[in-house]
Each structure stands twice: as C-alpha cells, then as structure tokens.
Amino acid sequence: MLRRTLALWLAATLEPLRSPLAWLGLLSLAACVPLLVLVFGEGEAPARAWLARSIVVEVLRWLLPLGALAGAAFAIRPSLRSGWAALPARRAEWFFAVSAASFCLMFVCALCFVAGAALSLAALGEAGNLEQSREAASFTHTARAQGGETVFIWPGTAETLEFEFVNAGLPPDIKGAFEFEIAWTRASAPERDVPFSVTLVGERTVEAATRVEARRRASFAAPNPGGESFKVLCRATDPALTVGMKRASCRIEGSRPGPLASLGWLLMLSLAGAALCASVALCVRALATAPTAALAGLLLLVALTLLPALSPGDFASRKRRQDVERQAESEASTLQQLAVLASRLPRLMEPADFERFMAGRAAGGEDARGALLRLLIAAGLLPAGALMFGRRQIA
User: Fold this and answer.
1) Which of 68, 163, 174, 267 satisfies CB 3.0 to 4.6 Å to 250 for a cystine?
2) How much of the chain is helix, strand and coil, in % rounded to 5?
3) DSSP state at residue 361
4) pLDDT for 41 beyond 60
5) Are 376 and 383 in contact (CB under 8 A)?
6) CB 223 within 8 A of CB 206
7) Four-CA torsion 70, 350, 283, 342, nearest 10 degrees
8) Percent of the chain at pLDDT above 70?
9) Mean of the per-residue pLDDT values for the chain?
10) Cα–Cα distances in Å, from 344 out to 147, 309, 311, 314, 329?
11) Contact in structure between 221 and 209 (CB atoms under 8 Å)
C-alpha cells in the first residue's frame, strides 16, 4: 500500500513538471518581486524595500491560500491519463497521493516566489535588511487604569510606565520606538505630537528626544545611560490624552540581519494556513464537485480572515474609555454582540508577524504553536477525505 501510494505521489508530482510551461511559470514566480520593484519602485532604496516587503506580505497572506484551495479543489479529477481505470479499488490511495502531490507543488511555487523576494531585498543592500528589536525584560507601572495587557497613564499625575532593558550589547546611542494607544479626556484639544515624555534611568538620568513616526507610533533617541540595566520611563504630558501601552509596546533597535530568516518564517506561516484551506477543499471534493469544494475552502478563508477582524465601529473607543474611566459597560445591540463573538474566532494566520515584516522589522516565532496546530489539522483531514473518497460511487 505504501509503495503504491509513493509511486502515485511521484507520478502526480512529476507530471506537471514535464511541461515547459510549468518551468516558465516557476521562473515567472521567482522574477515577480524583482520585476515589480524595478518597474514600479520609485525613490530611494528604503521605498523600494518597502514595496518588495508589501508584495511579499500580500501574496503570502492572500494569494497563496486562494491559489492553494482553488488548485486542491480541481486536483482530484479522475481520468485515464492519471491511472484511474487501472486502480478501481485503490481510490483512497490515489486520493491521498494526489493530495500530497498538490501540497508539494504548492510548496515549490511558494519557495520560488520567496527566493525571488529574498534576492530582490538582498540586492537593495542595507535598506533590505530588517531591524532586530529588543523587547523589555520587565514592565511595571504606577497607573490605576488597566484594560487587559494595556495600561493607561493619566496626564497631570505622577503615573509612569517603566520598561527595563538589559544593557549588554547596546551601542553608546540608544534608539527605540513606541507603539501606543490614546483616549481623549475631553479636557481640551490635543496639543502635542507625542503625548508623553521619555526618560532613561541607569547610572545617570537622560532625557530622550521623541519624534512621530506614524499614527500611534513614535521613536526616541538618547545617549546610553550606562549600568548593567536601565529603565525607560514614560509620563503622559498632553492634558487632553491618556496614553496606553503594554510590555511589547516599547522596543530598542539592535542589529539589522538579512531578510532570509524572516522570509522563511513567513513562508511557514503562510503554508500552514494554505494547507488548512486546501485540506478542507479536498475533503469536500471527496463527496462533491470541484466548484463546491472551492467554495467550501473560500468560505473557510473568509471566516478565519475577515470575521476575526470584524468589530463595531465604536467598539475600540468604547472599550478604551471603559478601561480608562472605569465606567460600567454600556448596552450593546445584537449585531454588535455578534461582531464581538466573531472577533474571537481563531485566525487563519496571525497578522502580527506580517505587519512586523512590512514595517521593516524581523519576524519572530510567536505563532509557532498556531502554525503547528493548523498543519496538524490539515494533515488529519486528509485520511478522512481519502476514506470518504474510497467509498464514493463514481461512474
């Protein structure tokens, strides 16, 4: 049984590769990112690097799962050419082999695309490298308002947020960034671009210079305060805004490694999500037509990507105000309650690593458990689909 399945898998894998158009398609995938950056990239190297990273993120997050579920739905097509007539009693083995071959081809296509992206970023030199950030070793605060992991400090008080970093290996000039949330106190209109001050406390105390980088993101720079470790203290300075952060909100710039490791990690995340969509399409294909199977995979993709991001328009602001002002929860409509329940669905792929990569930072391994779980579910669905396909009556 195993030998027959391996032989069928090898034949199904090599059959598409015999066509010259298949190799042309693989070369096109490898040259996709370099050509798009060359044609549409304008400005200096950082702008072209951002374009390359954006293309990689959009393809791996959306196009690869779509292509995987569409290809898997139409991969199971019994025909004389694929040896169907010679194996009337081996349908389960044939189904399993063709499914495994479709996964292998999906991996080859994704690998060619990522290889081209890596070459494109490597050609940009230093601009194509990623920022390896160091997160705080500990996080303490003196704030009274807290909503989950996020802590809010009130302006005009002595409340502080304290991030402690180990000083080993840091340069003489410290550079870092903050990602923060704000809530309007209704006292007045906002006055400052960065609504908080930053102080570094080590062997000596240093005031840091802050600068706005993007919406709810700011950077800071200061001389190294010395010591084995130092603290980064934040105080709210704008009387109109409260400032909320969590432990991962503050980071310090470290080394700038190449993009290859992060691209490999994003490839694994994307393949795990695409394999889950493809497995669902294959299981439905075992009992239904190819368009029905493609529709089932598309519904799973939509459910695990759009629904978790669905929430009422004022949900975030109401939640922040509730956390800051400690007010009772207001009544929500039935539609808002359903949206909140939908937002708690597991995601097909966690967006944190993709957003971090698109912002020029190295992707980490925070979602390793989720990716492994998706791969295990995808692998567990294949035997079930093979069993159902073996019992199906096909003329």
Assistant:
1) 163
2) 50, 20, 30
3) B
4) yes
5) no
6) yes
7) -100
8) 85
9) 84
10) 17, 9, 10, 17, 18
11) yes
